[in-house]
Amino acid sequence: MNYVVIKCGGSVFEQLPPSFYQDIVTIQQKGKWQPIIVHGGGPLISQLLEQTGVKTTFINGLRVTTNEVLDVVEMALSGSMNKAIVRKIAEAEGKAIGVSGIDGNLLEAKPVKDDTTLGYVGEVIQVNTNLVQSFVEQGLIPVVSPIGKDRTGQRYNINADMAASAVAQALEAKLCFISDIPGIYHEVNGEKQVFHQLNETKIDELIQQEVIFGGMIPKVKSALSALRKNVREVSIVDGTADHGLEEFMQGKQVGTRIALEQEVPHV
């Protein structure tokens, strides 16, 4: 089975058109690729934390997570966001199953390396691929919320990019980050010119030139790391473009594809 792990962030969710979910169903129905969705939910978590009066802070972009914060994170991700995506796929006449990383020990986690200040923020150490395969055999599209647990039962909040990458590594899948931008681009005379293919050398060059900056730097670095661990290809695709995901899966010049080494045309 060929898998494609589609990571959908909380900030882009509100902007995704119905065609995005239709594309996911179409990809599955064509039979060549099996989609798996891993989602975030940062804005909704922040909103719920504010409404419930639970205090939270960030260190280096990661949310400091107490058990009290985890209750709200789980409510937002595994409750609201997860089921909203399952409903959207059902509206596109697909069959999805919403699961948390806790269900069936899907995502076994441990605390993030060398950090005691973040509380219960984790990283994935094992993915239960048998559980994923059993869903797929029943014709279901798994929709995964990135909460994991360790063998003692302690829950962990896992960064959705990292969770998607771990699932893609375990399944030797393609990894596709859904964004609200057309890919990695630079502006020439006020026009966005997208880099449709990038390799490690070109990425380093673009970081030095500050074409790639801010939150995109950890994203491309985690992409390169995933490629070293059995992930076939990493890409960034605009989910807000009409049928952009399906066109990308057909091999069209959509979004940015990242590989370790490849011929990269000059843009």
What features would you describe in this structure?
38% of the residues lie in helices and 26% in strands. The longest helix has 25 residues, at 67-91. The chain has a single domain, classed as Acetylglutamate kinase-like (Carbamate kinase), CATH 3.40.1160. The protein has helices at residues 10-13, 18-30, 42-52, 67-91, 129-137, 160-171, 200-208, 216-227, 244-249, and strands at 3-8, 34-39, 58-59, 62-63, 96-100, 107-111, 121-127, 141-145, 147-149, 155-158, 174-179, 185-188, 191-194, 197-198, 233-238, 256-258. It has 267 residues and is of the alpha/beta class. The chain is built from nine helices and 16 strands. α6 (160-171) runs parallel beside α8. It has an eight-stranded mixed beta sheet, with helices on both faces.
Can you describe this structure in just a few lines?
This protein has 267 residues and is of the alpha/beta class.
Which key terms come to mind for this protein?
globular, alpha/beta, 9 helices, eight-stranded mixed beta sheet
CATH topology: Carbamate kinase
CATH uppermost class: Alpha Beta
Strand composition percent: 25-35%
- Mean of the pLDDT scores? 91
Q: Helix content range of the residues, please?
A: 25-40%
